[in-house]
Amino acid sequence: MEHVIVTFPTDRLVYVDGEENGSTNEVLRVEAGTHVFELGNLANYRPASRTVTVQDTTVLEPLKIAFYRKDE
Amino acid sequence: MKLRSLTMQSCARIAVLGCALLVAACASFTPGNPPLAKHEPDAGYRFERLEQGDNSDELFVIVTFSGGGTRAAALAYGVLEALRDTTIEWRGRRVALLDEVDVISSISGGSFPAAYYALRGRQIFDEFEDKFLYRPIQSDLVRLALSPANWLKLAAPAFGRSDLAAEFYHREVFGGATYADVIARKQRPFVILNATDMTTGTPFPFTQDQFDLLCSDLAGVPLARAAASSSAFPGGLTPLTFQNYAGTCGYRQPPWVALAAADHASRVNPRRTARAENRLSLAAEEPARRHYIHLTDGGVADNIGLRGPLEAIASTNHPWSVLERMNKKKIDKLVVIVVNAATNPATDRDQTAAVPGLIDTLTTAATVPLDNYSFDTVELLSKTVNEFNTDARLVGDCNRLSARKGEQCALKLPAPHKVDLYSVQVAFEYIASPEERTWFRNLPTTFELPRETIDKLRAVGRRLLNEDPQFQNLMKALNGKP
């Protein structure tokens, strides 16, 4: 089991591989492997998606996947 | 003159029979699964399509029924009865635990009560005993196979003894029902009958997500055919053939499949990659298309029906992912009840120096790997549960330890959503009395058992459930009453 935190200035839904999977700024569990992370249809964030290979994380050190506001 | 006439008549009859057998042998294959005109992700037999009713996600209950013929069916039925009679306090109401079951995953003999419950709900308790449990199914199947009326059918290369069994179950057990009847009920639990894809050796669940890969409409598949595939015990029963219409319905794989397949070289998660490659194999179009899929007993790939649920618990890339629901904080308590009718027959093999015979050796070669795999699968469930619990404890302990050093040292590590997990095992190996345990572990695998044996199996299923330490913890947490 791997652990990630998708960061964004506000609470947003997180989509993993196209499926809704919890919220930003919270520890989410995913299976090891390459995944696509997105924040849904509201296009006010960048990058549009991040493709990340998640492995060797622990619950104490989740992988941080950062998204930003477009205007930042 | 009379003798000559009789001889000619006999010759004519043999010739007619021979021709008929030849015609049957040339008969074209009639698929038991219709094509899907257009892939519709929101239609068909899928977990998401079932109405929850009063069944909450916060308490998520998965039950698995193993293979083992009528022995497994009776044990599973006994557990269903116990779940019906067990009440818990949930959301301020007293409800039957059975009504909180979300998913049932079944194999072989366990697929009969599972399928019947999917079709008839609580009416199973009025009907199933006469329809299946106490019936001499095995004798009925042998009689059908030996009947000359069926020889023509059986002579066709695409029609086997399991097709005959499926026709019998369709008529006598499931009353002509198809998955359309199960879909029409729209009720949880989501019941997944599992067979084995002979070519890939992987579990083949009877869900629309799986049939999407074949561009086939599960709604048109008789429930009996799914049960027959799940219980096509190798040797005694033949595999069943399904037509693969892949590429004809506009199906597109979910995004994770290409990502997981691309991970093949890096080996970051071979298990996920294998699942992706299996999907790609089933959905392959010309020239790699597999025109027919041959399904044998679900027990060949996983005799306890736990592999699918384990994937759902450990992966977000699953058609009814439990992990995804955990990430969304929808699940607070996860209960997995494994009903395992595995036996361990006694043998006097080691009392003699004689070299074990061919049948003994082949039986051992066929069954021991399955039993070992089942053992590992249950261990994998325990490992997964421990991993969740350890993670939750680690974060809590770190936060507590750091806080002791003073407020300036407090870490306040974020933790994943906490889920209480209960892994419940119903298996003969947990019977306390050695004599009784030995008796149950020497029961045969057959579709016909004496009435008193079936009654004992039902009773021991209930008892083993109530005696399980994790089940007792669950009962304490939910103020349960057996």
Assembly type of the shown chains? heterodimer
Number of helices of chain B: 18
Low-confidence stretches of chain B: 19-26
Overall pLDDT of chain A: 94
Written description of the protein model:
The complex is a heterodimer of chains A (72) and B (482). Chain A is mainly β. The N and C termini of chain A lie far apart (33 Å). In chain A, a hairpin with a 2-residue loop joins strand 2 and strand 3. In chain A, 38% of the residues are buried. In chain A, 0% of the residues lie in helices and 53% in strands. Chain A is globular. In chain A, the strands form three sheets. A four-stranded antiparallel beta sheet of chain A has the order 3-2-5-7, with no helix packed on it. The mean pLDDT of chain A is 94. With 482 residues, chain B is an alpha/beta fold. In chain B, the strands form two sheets. In chain B, strands 1, 4, 5, 6, 7, 8, 9 and 10 form an eight-stranded mixed beta sheet that branches. A two-stranded antiparallel ribbon of chain B has the order 2-3. At the A-B interface, strand 3, strand 4 and strand 5 of A face helix 11, helix 14 and helix 15 of B.
